[in-house]
TrEMBL record:
GO MF assignments: transmembrane transporter activity
Source taxonomy: Bacteria, Pseudomonadati, Pseudomonadota, Betaproteobacteria, Burkholderiales
Membrane topology summary: Multi-pass membrane protein
Protein name, entry field: Branched-chain amino acid ABC transporter permease
Keywords assigned: Amino-acid transport, Cell membrane, Membrane, Transmembrane, Transmembrane helix, Transport
GO CC terms in record: plasma membrane
GO biological process terms on file: amino acid transport
Keyword Membrane in record: yes
């Protein structure tokens, strides 16, 4: 279940890198914005006694709107001005965007934590032996599988997806063939932002939504995409499973090493596969 959450959180990050070759440091802030938007919309809905099933749709809808709006504005106002420059420059730009969004969150929603646990507890629990688990976890698992399957099918079987794969392979040649690369870049960053926001919104009922929650996401999601191979969807899935399994074992047998074991896995993988387990083959340009 932790792996499913990690995969959903890392999906937008690996998509943006795969297409635009940007290590998006602001990904955690987009995740936090989705969580805040979900709580902000669902809280009054639940307080007024409306259908609890409608709260799940509202969580996703709020994340879609917030992620698409913030992603579009960030790409249009900031990122597109730096395309074609050194990757380090883009990394610093997204770090600056991260700082701006973190302060923006505090200006809009304040510094007090928000909670909306009703959707989390409404679905009840299931038991495995003597252990009890909330059924809401299946919502996150199901959405992670659905998001991964839809994105994979889109890239493989649709005309737009095949054009996007052409942009990934060689943006210069794609542009000479008449593909509007700038439009694909904007759409990719927007979709990646939406995926991050949806991950935050679906996580919001399980935690206390507070400033700084986006920072906590950066380390495990970057570990996932680095282990799997930057830009690889199958790699992100496998990386999430590895990190999720190792973390769960650490929580049970070695709680104080919960975060440290993630670095151990990443170091071991990079020692034998420096570009990750599923790193795409890069064509050598002459």
């Amino acid at each position: 279940m932790y792996a499913a959450w990690l995969f959903l959180a890392a999906l937008g990050l690996t998509l943006i890198y795969g297409v635009q070759k940007i290590l998006n440091m602001a990904h955690g802030s987009l995740y936090a914005i989705g969580a805040y938007a979900g709580v902000w919309v669902v809280g009054p809905w639940v307080a007024q006694g409306h259908s609890m099933y409608g709260s799940y749709a509202l969580l996703v809808l709020a994340a879609l709107v917030a992620g698409a709006l913030v992603g579009w504005l960030a790409e249009w106002l900031l990122l597109r001005r730096f395309y074609g420059q050194d990757p380090i420059v883009l990394l610093l730009v997204t770090y600056a965007l991260f700082m701006i969004l973190e302060d923006g969150i505090k200006l809009v929603w304040g510094v007090d934590p928000y909670t909306v646990s009703e959707p989390y507890g409404f679905l009840g629990d299931f038991e495995v032996g003597d252990l009890s688990y909330p059924n809401y976890n299946f919502v996150i698992v199901g959405f992670a599988i659905l998001a991964g399957a839809v994105l994979t099918a889109f890239l493989k079987y649709t005309r737009t997806g095949r054009l996007l794969r052409a942009v990934i392979h060689d943006r210069e040649v794609s542009q000479t063939l008449g593909i509007n690369v700038s439009r694909y870049f904007a759409a990719t960053f927007m979709v990646g932002s939406v995926l991050a926001a949806v991950g935050g919104a679906l996580t919001a009922p399980t935690i206390s939504v507070a400033p700084g929650m986006g920072v906590e996401l950066i380390v495990p999601t970057f570990a996932v995409v680095v282990i799997g191979g930057l830009g690889s969807l199958p790699g992100a899935a496998l990386g999430a499973c590895l990190v999720g399994l190792v973390r769960a074992m650490s929580v049970h047998y070695w709680p104080q090493g919960e975060l440290f074991v993630i670095y151990i896995v990443m170091a071991l993988v990079l020692a034998f596969r420096p570009k990750g387990l599923f790193a795409p083959v890069e064509a050598r340009k002459i």
